[in-house]
Amino acid sequence: MDKKAPEPVQISDNFDNRYDIQPPSTRGSNHKMPRKGKKLKNQPSKSVRWASKQFTEEELRGSRPPQWAKGKMIGMWHSARNSLKYGNDETEQANTRKTKKVREKKIDCIPLFVPSEKISELQGMLKKIGVPAPPCVQSTRSGSIQDRYKHVEDSAFKSKFLRTLSGNIQDKISTTKTCSLKKDPEIDERFIREERNKFTNGRYKEMLSFRKKLPAWDKRLELLEALD
Q1: Residue 179: which pLDDT band, with cuts at 50, 70 and 90?
Q2: What is the DSSP letter of 171?
Q3: Model confidence, pTM
Q4: Residue 139: which of 111, 117, 106, 110 has the closest Cα?
Q5: What residues contact residue 81 under an 8 Å CB cut-off, 6+ apart?
Q6: DSSP 3-state assignment of 141?
Q7: Were both Cys, which of 34, 65, 166, 225 would link to 69 (CB 3.0–4.6 Å)?
Q8: Is the CB of residue 60 less than 8 Å from the CB of residue 80?
């Protein structure tokens, strides 16, 4: 008799479950599956990176999508534009923080300038109240005005500028009082005419009526006398 060939053994789909057979990668309770890399903050997705390649830099910096963009491409334009905007903002903020740190390192002290008159005045006040004066602090600026502007090239403007800075306010006032001004009848007549025309102007009348309601209006003569 002819022997029949053995039939192939069929393994059911739930063979692993019945015999509790697990793949080698998941055996053992302590074994952990490798985690996928975390997505960095503000990192554009693949679709956004793809969309960024479809538009030029000028199109992404524009205020509206390009005219040729239709349907989904308009949404892709917005996503790519926002990604580019946030990326530039983060770069600018990082550069600002670095610049600020460099400035903080460079500025060790703030230069202070105190005139010699003020120093002597402060020392006299400290002596009166019985407090010992602190040690003298050397000024970081030159006391002479000519020395401060020595690096500027000599010119008529420089000499006039130095003359303006030198001296005190009393000298300036006395010089101004001694200056004689010539009267110009034409200019005087023009000013008188403009002053008379004010009283016929509606806006000036409205402003004048508002000023009369203010408390200082009744005291205007006293204020003028005090200023004189």
Answers
A1: low
A2: H
A3: 0.21
A4: 111
A5: 60, 61
A6: coil
A7: 65
A8: yes
